[in-house]
């Protein structure tokens, strides 16, 4: 398509729409939506040029992620050039702008009141000359400005004002519900991509040219940026080596490209770029003119020379070449580097109360009364201007940074007061609950109550942990000398919070704290401490301790039954105690102790998944989801969704699994809920394995733990042992697979739990090159007393064994293992695994019936690819016909083969001929 600056090609349809938009006789709004780098900014520049040629006044603005919490920051960009018209408005509307722009006091306006005032101002400005408002990166616009722009955009009919907004399709925004007309900006077709590439990078080596076209997939920015990266000493390397896994979204691969350039810069230049990125440099000319204190990158010629920066032709300042460059700079920085940059920016904005406070807060980790006071002042400023949401956020952060309980309580009360006036009643309840541990009533018991509320309902685990940790320290330092019920509740709550956060630092500090308490920590709590934290390093003997604890069941409190159930699950012995949990659930459901009920339902579901009772697990999970949703226990809602997603992935319901994975990850990752983000990664691994996409499975798996190691305190690290090994083997990473299997053996995983024993022996069998060892390890795995209790893993090991036997001992020897694997997968309801086992059975000479249910599951694209492959075309030739990369074609075929019950391309024609007529696409 186009250069970042330059003429467009291949956008004739979009240009026609935009020409009609500009030529329309009255005002209207239009949203351009597309992926990052697809050319939205170029089209916005084109519509601005059209409007200028038609004698329109054009005002441009851009959303900046760093400003997304600053109330009305985006609206300032649009309205600052029109400030001279405000004095010509009536008194009512003039006062509205005085309040919003901080020039006067008064009641903050509603969206409708402010929106009507903006419409009046725009109409007045457009009475002399038609007006076009152009907003790029609208997904980063602050909430207050987005609401006003949506209100205005729906009411432009009859005026001479037009609004056009560019949005990234992959990033949610307030414009998603604004009901404005949209124009989709899609990738360029193949021929146009080639034309653009040849125009800007003529004479490319044919191999590099093909690689760039395949990787760019019609994305203009990628077509422009990838060639220099590939040619820069990287020719001859595979796509995976160049960009990482090519199945991940293209913007992430482009960030990989930009990241390589950023790493080559000097430390001072990187620091300069980081300050610019965190201050929103490159957000548009209007933004730069509204604030003379915008950070200016001065010594960045090196970054400009390598294509990261451009020079603004009007101001002469450096600006980021593309928003992805800016976001990559910020993401590559370490936490300490970001904090240092924010501290420097706080000085730059020392005269802007809101910006200074925002940067101070981002630069501060420990409580700091000066920063808390600055945030409080910023909140007061935002409240006066109608930015209630920002004010509540800043007051809450101020409470977190307060040095005294009294100040924390006061600021939380202020936040609740602002939220109440803004109609944010749910937020009020959360703030009031958070404040139950403050002030004169800040007893350890109230800390327990507020900690549970904040953790379960809000997922505010990190704040709760700080509060609980401090309360335990206070009791210890206050001289508690014997076991105390409240202290026990605090300890168990701290352990439960750490279970969900799953971070090494939090657990290490907790171990240190509990060690300082000595015998004040009860024996049950010590079991939870070891089982919940890191079963690889602290799990020795846990099984026996759990068994002894359950022996005293009549004396156990319901919460101890639930907690011991979690411990039993961690060492894979929950099945023997599940009846106790079920009875407790039935009893507690009647008496209303719902937290215990929800926790135990999670455990029951997880055990049902493990032992192969998948239909029952689905029922339990849905029941748990309904219960947690009804009672608004958000953390438990997401936990249920995570387990349902994992179950869906195991069953091959990939679309549903990935939808739940995205939901869980989007909620859990920003909150630091590592337990759930690990399950989300496990969903990705399991779904990819079900599809036969082993490269994706491997990349998801190493996101949990690296080969040869088990990440400390990572719940899924040992549990995904078999997944990582299988994915590594299928992608040619035999050394990594073997290293990981041996690491499991060296870590004594078989001694920790029966399931870990099963998958360790299976992994060792799969990875060894010694036939004798392979036979021994497969025998140990398949005859392990616990193997039948974990049918999914057992069947996978049998499948691998059967495949190996077919190659080493012949088809006849392989059939028993393959038959048992296929039968188990079918009983479980894992169709993709079933078809894979059946295909291997066919290859071993056994006659099996192909499931027509899965033949019918061929999508139109899969069927078209299969037909072309059956006709003798290569992957490259199929890709050229269907505008797909050869790699994508290969991935589709890999999913088609098990659906058809075959293992090779040669069998396609016969398999397709067997599809009943009503199943042909």
Helix and strand arrangement:
Layout: H1 12-23, E1 28-34, H2 40-53, E2 57-62, H3 73-79, H4 83-86, H5 91-100, H6 111-126, E3 131-136, H7 143-153, E4 161-168, E5 182-184, H8 190-200, H9 206-216, H10 220-231, H11 239-243, H12 250-263, H13 267-278, H14 285-290, H15 301-305, E6 309-311, E7 318-320, H16 323-332, H17 335-348, H18 353-362, H19 369-384, H20 388-401, H21 405-421, H22 425-434, H23 444-458, H24 461-477, H25 485-501, H26 504-517, H27 523-533, H28 535-538, H29 542-551, H30 558-570, H31 578-591, H32 594-611, H33 614-630, H34 634-650, H35 654-671, H36 674-691, H37 694-702, H38 716-719, H39 721-730, H40 734-746, H41 754-767, H42 771-782, H43 791-808, H44 811-828, H45 831-843, H46 852-855, H47 860-870, H48 875-882, H49 886-900, H50 908-913
Parallel strand pairs: 1-4, 1-5, 2-3, 3-4
Antiparallel strand pairs: 6-7
Helix pairs in contact: 1-2, 5-6, 6-7, 9-10, 10-12, 12-16, 13-16, 13-17, 17-18, 18-19, 19-20, 20-21, 21-22, 23-24, 23-25, 24-25, 25-26, 25-27, 27-29, 27-30, 29-30, 30-31, 30-32, 31-32, 32-33, 32-34, 33-34, 34-35, 34-36, 35-36, 36-37, 37-39, 39-40, 39-41, 40-41, 41-42, 41-43, 43-44, 44-45, 45-49, ...
Global mean pLDDT: 82
Total count of strands: 7
Measured as a percent range, the helix fraction is: 55-70%
Class based on secondary structure composition and strand pairing: mainly alpha
If strands are numbered along the chain, what order do they take across the biggest sheet? 2-3-4-1-5
Shape: globular
Taking all Cα atoms into account, the compactness measure Rg is 30 Å
Note the total helix count.
50
The end-to-end distance, rounded to whole angstroms, is 34 Å
Uncertain regions spanning at least 5 consecutive residues = 1-6, 244-248, 283-292, 437-441, 849-856, 917-921
Summarize the biggest pleated sheet.
Answer: 5 strands, parallel
Strand content: under 5%
